[in-house]
Amino acid sequence: MPGRKIVAAALLLAVVLTTACGTARRTTRETQPTREGIVVAGRFIAAPVMRIGLEGAAGTVVTVKAPGGIALVSLPEGKRVAPDKPLGQVSFFVAEVSAGVSGEIHRVQIASLRNKQQAEKLAADVRRKLDLTVVVRFSSQTRTWRVQAGEAASRTQAAAIEKKLRAAGYAETWVVRDAAAPVSGGTISAVDASGRRIAASAIFRCAPRGGDSLLESSGSRYRGALELRVSREGRIIPVNIVNLDDYLCGVVPVEMSPTVFPQLEALKAQAVAARTYAYKNRGQYSAEGYDICESARCQVYNGAGVEHELTDRAVRQTAGEVITYGGEPVNALFTSTCGGHTEDAANIFPGDEVAYLKGVVCEPEAELFSSVASEDEPGITYGADGLPLDLELAALKTLGVVERDFQAQPREGLSGRQWSLWLEKAAARLGLRQADSVPQLPDDPDLKEAIVAAATAVGWLERIDRQVTDGDLMILADFEGVGAIDPAAARAALYFLRLGLIGPEPDGRLAFGDPLGQTAALRMLHRLLRHEAARGIIAGRLVRVESGRVVLRRKEAVEQHTLGAGARLFKRFQEYTVPVRSLQMAPGDELILFLRDNKEVGALVHSPSLEGIASDRSSRYFQWDVQYSPEELREKIKRYADVGPIVELRPLRYGVSERIVELEVVGGEGRAVLKGLQIRWALGLRENLFVIEKRYGERGLVETWRFIGKGWGHGVGLCQVGASGMAIAGKSYSEILRHYYTGVEVEKLY
Ligand SMILES: [Zn+2]
Known about the structure:
Layout: H1 2-12, E1 37-40, E2 43-46, E3 49-53, E4 61-65, E5 70-75, E6 79-81, E7 89-97, E8 105-113, H2 116-130, E9 134-139, E10 144-152, H3 155-167, E11 174-178, E12 186-192, E13 197-201, E14 203-208, E15 215-217, E16 220-222, E17 225-229, E18 239-243, H4 244-249, H5 252-255, H6 264-280, E19 292-293, H7 309-317, E20 321-325, E21 328-329, E22 334-335, H8 345-348, E23 370-373, H9 390-398, H10 416-429, H11 447-457, H12 461-467, H13 487-498, H14 518-531, E24 537-546, E25 549-554, E26 557-573, E27 576-580, E28 582-585, E29 590-596, E30 600-607, E31 623-628, H15 630-638, E32 646-654, E33 660-667, E34 670-675, H16 677-683, E35 690-696, E36 702-710, E37 718-719, H17 720-728, H18 733-740, E38 745-748
Bound molecules: zinc ion (ZN).
């Protein structure tokens, strides 16, 4: 076969280019698949190849651009169109839709309702949630309005749609056969940028001509190639033909933001889950001419424009890996925040018993807890305001700002000389080349003089001048004696107040004219250095403590710091920070370290999470509180159970995670039982994990329905925020996957 020889020769001469998310590219003729991939419009696409239906870009006209020019091929002839013409942009029009009818079409019936408005509301709901085609049709036989979803060419395909609906909580569905529908196919006209027709064909394929350039359509950029043909509805749905991993680079950052979750191992877990989903669902839309769709109905794909260095790495480092159970790729469901425990799939998606989708606890294991202890019993030094002053003393001594042998007398004043000395050292800690000369201070400076000296020493005068206006001084008007001080000092004082460096006295006075006390001086200096993130102050999240070293994560990087002998330990509960003898710490807890000479830890502040120890506690949806009036509740539930005014909500069954999985709704005009995901949709809540509280009015009727819950999502499979928590605790992506999916393996498929 001469054709093969040409391909082989071309491959031998091929130039291979590799970029972050672009796979190897070779130039050859549009013909048969090569061993490791296929060639589409002259562009080599490495195997495995996916076909993604870009429904968002669909229309009767689709325009494709490429800065380096477009290579265009018409099918089935496989002929290169206008090879000598520089095509920067090509528009494809539906020129003609083929007539003819197909045998039958299948739809999934969701409900049959007497009320048309209700049926339409339900249809809109399904459309919004699942992005399916949904129709409402009147049946004269039953005299009801039928809500039907999807347009499937086969019963198998309809079954897939039905499964999705069931997964979404629509429990009473069945597949119905419908009247004939128009067959797919037609003719497309390709038109260049000047509006001239360049070709007509049933199918076009295009790829960028330039090595590194990408195709652009509807504002998104794509790797690989695009294929265009007329769909059953008479539109063109561009199909992105792309390498599976290149596709994943456009999926993972959308499903799990690398800026919100910068933990590589968590992103790798997400990448493997997304690859498993894509792999398992290949061919789901074969009747439409592609493998999977680009929307939330499948998994969201936004093309090359959303790629991120970190998620690219997550995809590359797990290349070919999928999650399997009994040798088969799994249905890798994931949820945003599980609220501390995931749930069995069967409880949320009734009828879906899946061995590997079992509820698991979303907490770090006990061995991941770290403890540290100090040798001596801490004695508390109270400040003049009655609160401990130990942290300020330990931090400032560790940083070398306050002398190590300084003996605090919190209720006494501070000399001007001492204050100047501390300010000079603080300025050095802030990396100021030369401390602006500290103004000459009297022996016993008052608070306003101390503030002005501090502002001058750390070079803030210009900043304060811009940030605080004379008009702003109104804020201070309520405080006694403020009017008497000079406006420049008042502005500095207001700025210090704004940053929380100073505060009113316990009696509510702003004592600008009082002598500077040691307590105020130490607090002011400590807060100033913290606010400016001075050298030697490290804030991060605990990974673990091992052999005398604190391992913590600062943004993406992991650092280790040795605990110095006699390091002071502090526990922080909201605004109270107290010295303690020992600390029990969970991975992910917030820590602040103060380093001695920029080396070992001299003081450590631990902020335990008051949300508990769950791995996903960092999510702002970890806990929530929703309240409805009786009218609001009735209106919400009506779409799922039209039972009149709600009298009682009675949980009938709880899942392994104590999610409510069956809820009886008792209304003035009837009762209904909601199951699984339906419950949270009917109530408009983020999760099934909640308790119900009622508040009664004076006449003994419920006035407020209150739902206090945890989490966000369906609660089944991998918990994304929890995965990030496990990654912070030092777990690998395969440990994360095997934690959330019971009994699975991570296997390399290619
Ligand atoms: Zn979780």
